[in-house]
Automatic annotation (TrEMBL):
InterPro entries: ACT-like_dom_sf, ACT_dom, Beta-grasp_dom_sf, HD/PDEase_dom, HD_domain, NT_sf, RelA/Spo_fam, RelA/SpoT_AH_RIS. The keyword Hydrolase applies. This is guanosine-3',5'-bis(diphosphate) 3'-diphosphatase. Keywords: Hydrolase, Kinase, Transferase. Pathway: Purine metabolism; ppGpp biosynthesis; ppGpp from GDP: step 1/1. Residues 406-467 form the TGS domain. It catalyses: guanosine 3',5'-bis(diphosphate) + H2O = GDP + diphosphate + H(+). CDD domains: ACT_RelA-SpoT, HDc, NT_Rel-Spo_like, TGS_RSH.
Length: 724
């Protein structure tokens, strides 16, 4: 027998539910249906405790404050959560808004409840430089609390849900701020944890508060179009009803309507008109078991033709939040697209409740256990991001990336499935496998073929990462990775690497400056070093050396202090100063200026740049002129006898405007063992073209030989090195 029901969610949210006041007696009566009597008594004790703690406090609406914790507890009870979660919901604000301490809660209700309450409490007692930083730190603390106990987020979501239902009393600016936070953070978290019922309501209420005019326009358009849809929807449901009955399949068939925020977001993202978005009919078919899901799918595919490429099997490959269902899109009557979801009763429950289903049905429910396991896997990744992130704002931005996944499913060489967000690259995959794999990856094979590390991945591909022990992350990866874990891991590694290199360069610069006093760093008394470090209020010598290497302190002044000759008028016999030898392998704290492209053989000079370290220019570079009157910024440098890398050089070639000129020049460059890093066409007229190449070269002689070979080409009119 097929049971039919058409449901349309309220377009005004569920604020109307708050009109009838919910009392402690109502809560206890509700809890009696699934909790033990002694557990209900414990909840009532928590209510009396909370009411006394909040006595005299009111909300902006004027009602006693205790009605808010009661409403949060009601939402938790509707999810049929355990009694400790209900108690934490009632007490979630007592540590923040009253004199009650964590120790008192432990004494009255135990360690578990106190940890839950502490996890939900806000950081209003800490001082932050900005509201953005405060919100980011608050979010970071909440996410860390969730990793210890998933129930924290359930209380937090229930708290946010009631705040959104009663948002009308707030000032417009505060309403918009809270609504934005809800749409950007809390609704995506609910979705990530599979709690679609709460996610839909948060989106609906957030949309109404954030964009009241747009909400009203979309709402009116939906109401206007709904009347015409009812008849068509009934025909579709009846057709599916009859086919299911003929096939002997028992099912619930539910006509669904998109919520207003989903319609608005789709219109905005895909630049569609309202009719293009709303002209999609959605039907959910709920059956008894997995086998019947696939049978029901076959029935609807026989009834209406499926749209190619729009079938997704989330039963075989569940989403990250444990969601399972079969999705397909059909060509309905008159060409109307119909979205179909086919799932079991258990899958439907998990789809609505997500991780909350774990507490709702503990016994023999593998689906909800899977949902919680996947949630924990995601939260484990969040914890890794937190440990590597530089600050709370960076952490928040990286986690927000992970809160909006449109998944792609990738296979490892061993056949395991890994899920990544849409747009993920091979580097994202490497970091998803393990941070060490990401840090040392040098190449990738996609479906057994070598591909660039920046290649975007698509569902069904098999990806194999090739690593090398000495490899390290490339800063350029930050321009294309999309996952928070990859971005944070790369930044963390490069930051530590840069600090180590800055210490090494700082030591060399300080030793070089101490030569003027006939000393080296090893010869300076440890007491003198300790005294200077303490005077500058630095953690240690390495921090001082790092500051020198990054250009934040002058090596000459530090050397003067360490020599003991910084008293005014103290005479110093300067020893002859040797230039600092550079190879190019010193790392990120030594760079070669892109304005003049110095290469071995060029006379060079080093300029200390605050925060960047040592920047090497050619002596003839125009940009060095601004440092002529700042001798303290100059560092005498020379090329090491054995340069360690290839260097970039720029040449400008004026050619006759003929077909094949670029190919001929590129052939000469390749024959000379060089690579083209960049090419640009700066000037054009009818007869000539000026081409600027950025090339890799090992020395000035190598570049001169290359230019000599180019000059022999008949179409080359003029060639010279580009100068800063």
């Amino acid at each position: 027998m097929v049971e039919t029901a058409t449901s349309a969610p309220s377009t005004t949210g569920v604020a109307s539910k708050e009109n009838t006041r919910f009392l402690a007696s109502d809560l206890c009566a509700y809890l009696d249906s699934y909790l033990e009597p002694e557990q209900v008594s414990e909840v009532y004790k928590a209510y009396l405790f909370g009411a006394e703690a909040h006595d005299g406090q009111t909300r902006l609406s004027g009602e006693p404050y205790i009605y808010h914790p009661l409403a949060v507890a009601k939402t938790m009870a509707e999810m049929r959560m355990d009694h400790k979660s209900i108690i934490a919901a009632i007490l979630h604000d007592v540590m923040e808004d009253t004199h009650i301490s964590k120790e008192r809660i432990i004494e009255e209700f135990g360690e578990d409840v106190a940890e839950l309450v502490d996890g939900v409490s806000k950081l209003t007692h800490l001082k932050f430089r900005s509201k953005v930083e405060a919100q980011a730190e608050n979010f970071r603390k909440m996410m860390l609390a969730i990793t210890r106990d998933l129930r924290v987020i359930l209380v937090k979501l229930a708290d946010r849900l009631h705040n959104m239902r009663t948002l009308g009393v707030m000032r417009p600016d505060k309403r918009r701020r809270i609504a934005r936070e809800t749409l950007e953070i809390y609704a995506p978290i609910a979705q990530r944890l599979g709690m679609n019922a709460i996610r839909r309501e948060l989106e609906q209420l957030g949309f109404a508060a954030m964009y009241p005019n747009r909400f009203k326009v979309v709402q009116e358009a939906v109401n206007k179009a709904r009347g015409n849809r009812k008849e068509v929807m009934q025909k579709i449901e009846t057709a599916i009803f009859n086919r299911m009955e003929e096939a002997g399949i028992e099912a619930r068939i539910i006509g669904r309507e998109k919520n207003l925020y989903s319609i608005y977001r789709k219109m905005k993202q895909k630049r569609l008109s309202f009719t293009e978005v709303f002209d999609v009919f959605a039907v959910r078919i709920v059956v008894s078991d997995v086998d019947t899901c696939y049978r029901a799918l076959g029935v609807v595919h026989n009834l209406y033709k499926p749209v190619p490429g729009r079938f997704k099997d989330y039963i075989a490959i569940p989403k990250a939040n444990g969601y399972q269902s079969l999705h397909t899109v059909l060509f309905g009557p008159h060409g109307i697209p119909i979205e179909i979801q086919v799932r079991t009763e258990e899958m439907d429950r998990v789809a609505e409740s997500g991780i909350a289903a774990h507490w709702l049905y503990k016994a023999g429910d593998s689906h909800s256990a899977t949902a919680q396991a996947r949630a924990r896997e995601w939260l484990k990744g969040v914890l890794e991001i937190q440990q590597s992130a530089g600050n709370s704002i960076e952490f928040l931005e990286n986690v927000k990336v992970d809160l909006f996944p449109e998944e792609v499913y990738i296979f490892t060489p061993k056949g395991e499935i890994m899920e990544l967000p849409k747009g993920a690259t091979a580097v994202d995959f490497a970091y998803a496998v393990h941070s060490d794999v990401g840090n040392t990856c040098v190449a990738v094979k996609i479906d057994r073929r070598l591909a660039p590390l920046s290649t975007h991945l698509f569902s069904g591909q098999t990806v194999e990462i090739i690593t090398a022990p000495g490899a390290r992350p490339n800063p350029a990866w930050l321009s294309f990775v999309v996952t928070g874990k990859a971005r944070t891991s790369i930044r963390h590694y490069l930051k530590n690497l840069r600090e180590d290199e800055a210490v090494s360069l700082g030591r060399r610069l300080l030793d070089k400056a101490l030569v003027a006093y006939g000393l080296s760093l090893e010869q300076v008394a440890q007491e003198r070093i300790d005294a200077l470090v303490e005077e500058l209020k630095l953690p240690g010598l390495d921090t001082l050396l790092m500051d020198i290497g990054l250009g934040n302190r002058m090596a000459a002044l530090v050397a003067r202090r360490l020599s003991g000759r910084d008293e005014e008028g103290a005479a110093v016999e300067a020893a002859p100063e040797r230039p600092l030898a550079v190879k190019g392998t010193e790392g990120m704290v030594l760079s070669f200026a892109r304005c003049c492209y110095p290469i071995p053989g060029d006379p060079i000079v080093g300029v200390m740049s605050t925060g960047r370290g040592l920047v090497v220019h050619r002596e003839t570079c125009r940009n060095v002129s601004e440092f002529r009157d700042k001798p303290d910024k100059w560092i005498p440098v020379e090329w090491s006898p054995e340069p360690g890398v290839e260097y970039a050089a720029a040449i400008r070639v004026q050619t006759a405007n003929q077909r094949g000129v670029l190919a001929n020049l590129a052939t000469v460059i390749a024959d000379m063992g060089s690579n083209i890093e960049n090419v640009s066409f700066d000037e054009r007229d009818g007869a000539t073209t000026t081409i600027t190449f950025t090339l890799s070269t090992s020395s000035r002689r190598h570049l001169a030989n290359m230019m000599r070979r180019m000059r022999r080409l008949p179409e080359v009119m003029k060639i010279q090195r580009a100068r800063g």
